[in-house]
Amino acid sequence: MSEVLLQVENLVKYFKTNAGKVKAVDGVSFEVCAGETLALVGESGCGKSTLGRLILRLIEPTSGTVRLEGEDLGKLSGKQLRKKRSQLQIIFQDPFSSLDPHFTVGELIAEPLRAMGMGKEERESRVMTLLDQVGLSRDYYTRYPHQFSGGQRQRIGIARALASSPKLIVCDEPVSALDVSIQAQILNLLRQLQKEHGLTYLFISHDLAVVRYISDRICVMFLGQLCELCSTRDAYERPMHPYTRMLIDSAPEPDPEFHREDRLLLQGEMPSPIHPPAGCRFCTRCPFATEECRTEPPEMKDYGGGHLCACHHPLLP
Ligand SMILES: Nc1ncnc2c1ncn2[C@@H]1O[C@H](COP(=O)(O)OP(=O)(O)OP(=O)(O)O)[C@@H](O)[C@H]1O
Ligand SMILES: [Mg+2]
Fold first, then answer.
1. Atom of ligand 1 nearest to the CA of 51
2. Ligand that comes closest to the CA of residue 22
3. Domains of the chain
4. For 251-271, b where at least 16 C-beta lie within 10 A, e where not — what string?
5. Which of 37, 42, 196, 220 could form a disulfide with 46 if both were Cys (CB 3.0 to 4.6 A apart)?
């Protein structure tokens, strides 16, 4: 495998609310290698976006570290962090709400470049190149984002994320708001740009069909913690954590003939992130849970070949 670009170590984010501390991210560790696409999957509210925002340091962690190329982002001064941040970018789900309607497309794409101190002329020519790269006409420079369709707006968001020549892009549900036909175009664009620019993606999604198409490895998250981390192939062909298997088996399958007969479907309510179950967080929804699962939090274990799983009773192949 190639070199490690990003290291996340024991990352924790608790949000203080009136009802108590929301344990949004609770002791998450993983690495992302240069040039790969690592997907982050899990049900709504499990902490995916919070994790993405922590990595970009858009929010401060309660504890834990994020290292980019070995450098601890938490130890950088304001100025150093701003510089380092140009190497980290994000693409959001809803390109419209993430783009300020008062700016032209050109200004929006150029904004990260201005923040880096690039002069006007250089900015303009760079934006033209970026428009070409994401498949938008150069004429769009002076137009406003509301004049565009969802897919085109996402292309604007991608151009803006690319502007500062980042190494890592966090893609937070980048195609979830788009029609299926447009989704494929945007996914293909992301793949093509990855190849051309050696980009690394942390790809957040709850759509397992999308994840299967785009990602090299998959990280499965449940209630603020990681359950399993493995190659995309292993996740689909030999999942070890019951939650991974149930997520995959519960995903909508257009052709019922392809449903496996021994499907394990997700059941039960999501526990509260304020009072998560002791032991394994998935124990209240797991058909295999034992007393040990209800009392002892399972540790992440390496089963070889880069297949990691945190479960007392993994589903062995
Ligand atoms: N600013 C905040 N204050 C309080 N709680 C928050 C805040 N941001 C997120 N949370 C809570 O943290 C948990 C994780 O939220 P997060 O948005 O990271 O989930 P997610 O996996 O991205 O969900 P989705 O798939 O719906 O986007 C949720 O319980 C959410 O309500
Ligand atoms: Mg989210």
1. 18
2. 1
3. 4-87+167-177+196-253+260-309 (3.40.50.300)
4. eeeeeeeeeeeeebeeeeebb
5. 42
